[in-house]
Amino acid sequence: MESKVKYMKLALLEAEKAANEDEVPIGCVIVKNNKVISRGHNRRERKNDIASHAEIEAIRKAEKKIGDWQLIGCDLYVTIEPCLMCMGAIVQSHIQNVYYGSKDPKGGAAGSVINISEIKGLNHYPNIEGGIMSEECSKIIKNYFSNKRKNKRLG
Question: Cβ neighbours of residue 93 under 8 Å, at least 6 residues apart?
């Protein structure tokens, strides 16, 4: 559990980068052989690209780093439960383990809204574990939206 917390803390640092860029604060790191090979955070607004979620950003960087689209033996750490698009990319890239912080009751595809593991016939099923540093991961996103609402009222 100690290494899971270590890597989730790094994902939280990525989420802070997103918040500083006025993006929804979700961060991600990908680890292979106990070494971080990529990092990513939400960049949808900056890139004007719906697919620029933290997980997709990190997956793209990991593919370049190892020179292959198949991320076999890699673990993905993300602050919020992945959405359906991101879980699709995780499945397609053959990521071994997914560790997330807080559930996403409006869009999570690891059990909250849909559970990718229950879809029959996929070519790969990652191991999924949630609840790692859940409070910290939930707090950063709640604070972000609370500040957005407050600033909207003041502006």
Answer: 59, 63, 69, 70, 71, 74
